[in-house]
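Quiz preparation item.
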């Protein structure tokens, strides 16, 4: 479980500490995007670790769905069902970001970044996407 430990004045950036592993991950607490805009999520592991892979997941009703992965040996991969929607903006094993293109209501929710390390395990950050302009129609 991640616990917020610091919030900036804008309340859009939050540092999380993974309670079991004590590494610090910097990520946005909330990303706001209008329908049709792009939304960017970034996660940075602030301590140097032996990261083998960074995985992005969408959390829906307590089910985690893998969205995209950046692997030390195999590079980047966007999973089926997300290839037209998600792309990497920056790929790195300590700092990784994705972009959700042309945001819709269905994209709203929380996303996790997992820094998978050896031998320590996973360090996890979480960002939630809030979509506005959902019911706005031009006459």
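Solution:
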């Amino acid at each position: 479980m991640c616990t917020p430990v610091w919030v900036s004045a804008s309340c859009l950036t939050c540092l999380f500490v993974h309670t079991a592993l004590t590494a610090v991950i910097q990520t946005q607490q909330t990303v706001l995007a209008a329908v049709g805009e792009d939304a960017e999520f970034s996660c940075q592991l602030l301590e140097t670790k032996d990261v083998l892979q960074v995985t992005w997941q969408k959390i829906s009703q307590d089910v985690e769905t893998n969205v995209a992965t950046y692997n030390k040996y195999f590079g980047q991969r966007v999973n089926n069902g997300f290839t037209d929607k998600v792309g990497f903006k920056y790929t790195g094993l300590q700092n990784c970001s994705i972009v959700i293109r042309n945001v819709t209501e269905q994209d709203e929710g929380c996303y996790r970044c997992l820094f998978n390390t050896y031998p320590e395990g996973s360090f996890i950050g979480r960002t939630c996407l809030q979509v506005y302009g959902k019911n706005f129609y031009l006459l």
